[in-house]
Amino acid sequence: MSEKPHIDRQHGQQLFRDMLRIRRFEAKCAELYQGQKIRGFLHLYDGEEAVAVGIMQALEERDAIVATYRDHGHAIARGLPMGSLMAEMFGKVEGCSRGRGGSMHFFDRARRFYGGNAIVGGGLPLSIGIALADKELRPGAVTACFFGEGAAGEGEFHESMNLAELWELPVIFVCENNLYAMGMPLELAEAETDIFRKAQAYRMPSEKVDGMNPVAVEAAARRAVERARGGKGPSFLECRTYRFRAHSMFDAQLYRTKEEIALWKERDPVPRMQAWLEENHMLSAEELKRIEDQVDVEIDAAVTFAEAGQWEKVEDLERFVLMDEVPQ
Amino acid sequence: MSSPVAKPVRMSYREACRQAIRDALTNDPRTFLMGEDVGLYGGCYAVTKGLLDEFGPRRIRDTPLSESAFVGAGIGAAIAGMHPIVEIMTCNFSLLALDQLLNNAASIAHMSGGQFAVPLVIRMATGAGRQLAAQHSHSLEGWYAHIPGLKVLAPGTVEDARHMLRSALADPNPVLIFEHIVLYNVEDELDPAVESVDIGSAKIRRPGRDVSVLAYGNSLPKALAAADTLAKEGIEAEVVDIRVLRPLDNATIFESVTRTRRCIIVDEGWKSGSISAEIAARLSENLFFELDAPIRRICSREVPIPYSRHMEEAALPQTSAIIESARTLIGSR
Amino acid sequence: MSDFLMPSLGADMERGKLVEWLVKPGSKVRKGDVIAIVETHKGAFEVDIFQEGVIADLCAVEGQEVPVGAVLARLAPSDKAPALGTLRAPANPVAAEKAPEVALAAPPSPEALSASGKPAKVAQKVSPMGPGSRAHAKVTPAARRRAAELGIDPYTLKGTGIDDSVTFADVERASASHVGPEAPAGPTRPGRGFDPLQMRQAIAAAMSRSKREIPHYYLTTTIDMGPSLSWLETFNTERLPDQRLLPATLFLKATALALREVPQLNGFWENGRFRPGSGIHIGWAVSLRGGGLIAPAVHDVDTMTLPELMIALRDLVARARGGGLRSSEMTNPSFTVTSLGERGADCVIGVIYPPQVATLGFGRISVRPWVTGGKVTARPIVVSSLSADHRASDGHAGGLFLAAVDRLLQEPLKL
Asked: Among the four residues A178, A242, C146, C359, which has the most C-beta atoms within 10 Å?
């Protein structure tokens, strides 16, 4: 086990900056959605930023990511260019999936980002296979597989837990438990509401993590990644978190109270991290201003990039239904 | 491996499948076989018997009964650089992996804008005829042929069983191979000069001028038997082995039907929404003015396949029905 | 109950105009009775009936154009003569379903009805595009396409396909026998739907019409074939078998050149007058192995060399017997030649195929005593015989024509 990560000024600011990038990027997305620049389903990560940002701290370039349809945070934290993400949501060919996937299906081969998957639980078996391949082809590489607690209801979840442990695969399963599967409260859906215990049943090292705290998530991720790289098999992190916004843009949120949301907002990772850094003299007012300005510039540039993008030629509609060769 | 001596080799469809897998494992270190009972048990239909001893447990990987997970794992391994062969014991169980097949295997290449290919081969046993009753007698290849992004093969000869796998593994796309359970025991001579078959085209197995009989899988031998009988009556049936259900080889099928102007499609799937329906629709869309008779389809009756022998036979396409249909289509001349 | 249909009086007849009914509902008819007058583009015909019974219903009004095969009248068995107006239900349910549609598509004009004095329901039964033909016949898509290419109405054909549908092959067969001098309709391909009875009936109809309408006159002349045959022998010895000429080519070419000199024999008698042929297109009578015959045209024979003619002839005969004649060959020849060949009789006196105005026959070539310069010698001779329509030409023209044929055959080099 590695020790708790040491948070210095630079690292602390990086965690804060990445969470802020996600937060403000998505605020812009919501605005652009209402302005009809972005269409389709738009699931915002607002409130859960600490999970993606924390996990990514433990990963290297050689590692792989399998994400969910709520994938903006994973993509930004992994380093996918914001412009390519915004262009994707605009449906432009410069998007990270040529405008074919939209918000739910970000892909990036170069960054081993194996897609936002819009079938709950659908990415879990993929992560098994990627890890299996990595064992042969890229020893030491790790796959981080994200999914919500709703996935625990799927058979694929259990099949994948079993296989990963049975075959001692280098996967870290990251359960983003935001308490609602769309509108289904956890306690109404699961007999065992501690999801990590399900993984324990498969003899997998598992823990419950404060998903509102990027430092805690990072610490847990480092422990899990170290086990995986060392050939000790998979780990399971149940990150307790909360989404502040609705499930998707068209959701009246009948299933939860404003009071509950307000209670969780007190634990909002972005202002909390900012306050913690300020309290510990790791973030000056000037630095904050600079970070905020940089983030705003990055987002503005992303929007400009997306606006300037081209529509994919309709003649290319059937391109890549079947591949002519395996991309190398 | 083909013998250096150019002598015809006689083998069963089962042995042909096994030899093909053995070749693949020998020739490509990125290839491994994964599925239920493929190792210790030797395969439900004994196709993989002996391979575990030969290649070891990393290359011959027994899986738990988790179709969705191990099919998905095959997809994941393929997008991450391997060339896996996944065996689903029978297509009846493939329904448990349908989400992975449709939403991942068939979609990832297009959905990712061409960033990822899925060079995966999935073999599964298909079909009825062994009195296995409703849940073990499905012919689902036509369903899978509905899905863009997949290739769907149905070897109906020992030669295709022997050589299709190699072509399928060389393909950058997910390829589903449906091996018919009744054919596993069929033996034939293999021409050693043939070392590969293309998986893009249908094949005319018997030329004829009067009516095109399109068939695949275990319907192929039935169609050939029907053609033998019809020939004695002066009716020359052309038997076209469709063999590639997706993408359909329109060119070969259209060329044949344009010549004969009559067409019978034999399909062990249920008639409604079947691959035979698709072919018939294409023929009427493209060859309407070439047709000299209505298109006829001989499919399985629309019932869960029953256990008892006579009822199962009544439910499946039979040679006699092909013969009768051909006679009717030809008319009095 | 049976239907009496608009008859096909020739394969090129698509429709006929009902000029006059000679019977009325309730009339008893016997086989052979003339029951109506029908006018076609080839003139008016008395239409007789092949069945016995009682006319139950007249389905067409006088003055109406009716497609071949459409119902003209319904006939009840004679022992159960039905009351008028009780026989509404058509024999064919398909026709019954289609009838209202047809009536809507082509409503009879009130004027026409009042003028004819027939009840409206009678007129509704058969419109010019009436169900009697289209709704009854099934024609496959391939057959429709082929028929359109060949300019044939496939709805007049007998089908051999599934559910008696008219098939591609049926159309091709019909095309092959579309317009022949003695065989206006019928299949040609033995073993593939060949119907000797149908062809025999077609020949019967055409020849009956010819003998009924055409005042034939006949002239014969005996021709010395010596010069032609010796030239032919010389010509053929230098050539491979498939390049050798038969006497038939000389007959054809000589006939064509003679027709240039006597053009009133090359053409058609239509609407009471002679219409010259647009070229010298000679129908060549080909007897079929399964029985029957057809006479497809060799076009512009007068402009062809003998070797060209030979190739054309071989090809034509092969295709006539094997099926696969082209529609252009089936368009009316303007004259017909019959040659009985080696196994035939000495002389053939032909029946003109209407609306042509003449036909020339050649008997077999045989060696006979021949007087030249007061000496009797053995010479190969042939009897050529002209049958001609006296309405279009007189014996003088016929004589000039035969003399020209004789003269031309004496100078084979000029052919």
From this structure: C359
